[in-house]
User: What shape does this take?
Amino acid sequence: MARAVIFDMDGVIVDSERYWRDEIEAILEAAGVGDDVDPEDVIGANVYDQYDWLTDEHDPTITRAEYFDLFDERAKAVYTEHADLLDGFHDLLDELDARGVPTAVCTSSFPDWIEMAFDAHGLTGRFDDVVNAADLDVPGKPDPDIYEAAADALGVPVTECVVVEDSEHGVLSASRAGAHVIALETTVNDEMDLSPADERASDAADLRQRVLAALDATGSD
Assistant: This one.
């Protein structure tokens, strides 16, 4: 039974992942692990979780703070100059509002980055809640905790939530939490393992149909 919708931000609400991929490639190079790590290995994970993984598996040549600073320096251009809003996204939110369906954003991005994206695309105040990894003392994606927290914030069991994700880490996180997961296919994730998703959407129009169908199947309207 689906009664709420939770969206990932990067790669779903805004097409930032295709820009972040190039930036992450440069960041990994600056961290001294560019020859060993594919950007897809860390896309979708919290920046600090990325660094912890790098130190476990590789040998970065910069500190944790320096790693974050590299991301922070590039965030403004990604969110305010490059990334576009998903086609028809405001219309989809209007439809969900009209049905009384609660919505949330669940993201590994940091508060300042979320604010940049929301300001650029008129998204402030459009969701019932915004949950980001930086505010939670729990493991980030691909662990399920962040989606469990987002469902709690909406007051809806996570098993009654539709989650829209695009990254391997995000899909796995939402699936482990027990949500109904729709993976949005993009030019960035075509080689990622999205198999834990319950279904896939090929584009924005297909995503809208699938989200509404998941709600209609349980009589949410």
